[in-house]
Design brief:
There is one protein chain. The protein has 206 residues and is of the alpha/beta class. It is 42% helix and 12% strand. The chain contains eight helices and six strands. It has helices spanning 17-30, 37-41, 48-59, 65-83, 95-104, 118-124, 148-157, 171-179; strands spanning 4-7, 108-112, 133-135, 164-168, 183-187, 196-198. α6 links the parallel β2 (108-112) and β3 (133-135). α3 (48-59) crosses α4. The radius of gyration is 17 Å and the shape is globular. The protein starts with a strand and ends in an 8-residue tail after the last strand. The relative contact order is 0.18. The mean pLDDT is 96. The structure holds 1,6-di-O-phosphono-beta-D-glucopyranose and magnesium ion. 1,6-di-O-phosphono-beta-D-glucopyranose binds next to α3. It catalyses: beta-D-glucose 1-phosphate = beta-D-glucose 6-phosphate. Belongs to the HAD-like hydrolase superfamily. CbbY/CbbZ/Gph/YieH family. GO terms for molecular function: beta-phosphoglucomutase activity. Keywords: Carbohydrate metabolism, Isomerase, Magnesium, Metal-binding, Phosphoprotein.
């Protein structure tokens, strides 16, 4: 029986992928690389520094560790300028209704995101108060598909992995949830290894 629900952030509760895309595209342009939606797909659920390394690789550009840090920080400043304009109406359909329902029905709720900006985004959209536990890019060292982020969320909720359900939109995240021994509902198509696939959180209560 499920007792805890763990949400990924980007692509599940809010659509920040469009902002990541614009900011990475700007950086890629400076590197002389034409970054498209196809490459952006491959960055979903991937940490900031691992995303940068993929882009440098596609662009065929070598960079020192300090140059990488500078580029990642620059991308993040552009990303934050875009996030700054976010409001509660940019929450993905069905998110608020499901969060309300879960709290009303006694479920424990956690965030399990790769994003270091997760607390800021949850504040800006007014969703932070629904969460009993936040695990994000600031508190884990191993990127999805490593299960660390979800195992830490379960531990902080004081629940066993087998009573936790994860909502994920990225293959790396689905793999991480599976490796953690949790049930997983995938958002979107083309995800392997889910218990169920839906196209949006709107479908959960309907
Ligand atoms: P940040 P999620 C992930 O969020 C995004 O999908 C991914 O594109 C991004 O690179 C990563 O967070 C790190 O984000 O630069 O804000 O630390 O899907 O795990 O909620
Ligand atoms: Mg995601």
């Amino acid at each position: 029986e499920i007792k805890g629900v763990i949400f990924d952030l980007d692509g599940v509760l809010v659509d920040t992928a469009v902002f990541h895309f614009q900011a990475w595209k700007r950086l890629a342009q400076e590197l002389g690389f034409d970054f498209t939606e196809i490459e952006n797909e491959q960055l979903k659920g991937v940490s900031r520094i691992a995303s940068l390394e993929k882009i440098l690789n596609w662009a065929g550009v070598d960079a020192s560790e300090s140059e990488k840090i500078e580029m990642a920080e620059r991308k993040n400043r552009w990303y934050l300028d875009l996030v700054e304009q976010m409001k509660a109406d940019e929450i993905l359909p069905g998110s608020l209704e499901l969060l309300h329902w879960l709290k009303k029905n006694g479920y424990q709720v956690a965030l399990g995101s790769a994003s270091k900006n997760a607390p800021l985004i949850l504040e800006k959209t007014g969703m932070i108060s629904f969460f009993d536990v936040l695990v994000d890019g600031n508190s884990v060292s191993l990127s999805k598909p490593n299960p660390e982020v979800f195992l830490k969320a379960a531990r902080d909720l004081k629940l066993l992995p087998e009573v936790c359900l994860v909502f994920e939109d990225a293959q790396a995240g689905v793999d991480a949830a599976r490796a953690a021994g949790m049930s997983v509902i995938g958002i979107g198509s083309n995800l392997n290894g889910t218990d169920l696939s839906i196209s949006s959180l709107e479908e959960v209560l309907n």
